[in-house]
Specification:
The chain is α/β, with parallel strands linked by helices. It is built from 8 helices and 6 strands; from the N terminus they run E-H-H-H-H-H-E-H-E-H-E-H-E-E.
Length: 226
């Protein structure tokens, strides 16, 4: 950690409980999906998402959905890391956060770790399969307040898959930092393997030790250990 000038963080299972994502965010997006698409279908940003979705659907041999909403629900059922889906979910969540229907949730150690790392002069960035918009909304509307002032970068799957080394090379380049001076923290070992292959330091975050058998060194249970 003393050698790391920047900390790159996963969200789900790392900064934020998995249950919040699967029991709050995903159901909210599913519930409001059809109404949102109907209400905003002619807006430029959603039209761009739907164009990407149609292109993805045309190259997907596994599904036979007859409408964009059906295909989006099909993707949700399979937890696909679809860039178009993630973008649309983010827009739905934006309405929820702004109306007060949603509040972001982070582990108790996250706000104090952000403050500590910032005092130490370390940069903090996020890399999640959720869209950049969804990331900013979550950290901007947490039950602990707005944490975005601590964050200096947001990255989603537009830079590449989280399990591929090249994605981490691109992130380091974007932050203008030597990759060896960055630390990536995640609860998913294949993601850590991708970062390590790129030359980045890594740490496995295990929030519920009894629910994992993954072996990685170093392993932490709290950001208080960093």
């Amino acid at each position: 950690m003393p050698e790391s000038r920047a900390i790159l963080l996963d969200i789900e299972g790392t900064t934020t409980p998995v249950a919040f994502v699967y029991e709050v965010l995903f159901p909210y997006a599913r519930k409001h999906l059809e109404d949102f698409v109907r209400a905003h279908a002619r807006e430029e940003s959603l039209e761009a998402d739907l164009a990407k979705l149609r292109a993805e659907q045309a190259s997907d041999p596994e599904q036979h959905a007859e409408s964009p909403v059906e295909y989006l629900l099909w993707l949700m059922d399979r937890d696909r890391k679809s860039t178009a889906l993630k973008s649309i979910q983010g827009k739905i969540w934006e309405e929820g956060y702004r109306s007060g229907s949603l509040q972001g949730l982070v582990y108790d150690d996250v706000p104090r770790a952000f403050a500590r790392w910032s005092r130490q002069g370390k940069r903090i960035a996020i890399f999640s399969s959720g869209s950049v918009l969804a990331q900013k909304l979550l950290f901007g509307h947490t039950t602990d307040g707005d944490l975005t002032s601590y964050l200096g970068g947001y990255f989603d799957t537009t830079v590449g898959p989280k399990r591929e080394a090249e994605s981490y090379v691109k992130i380091a380049r974007s932050l203008n930092l030597p990759i060896r001076e960055m630390l990536f923290v995640s609860d998913v070992v294949p993601e850590l393997e991708g970062a390590k292959a790129a030359g980045m330091s890594t740490a496995l975050c295990v929030r519920i030790p009894s629910q994992t058998s993954a072996a990685w060194s170093p392993t932490i249970n709290s950001f208080d250990e960093l």
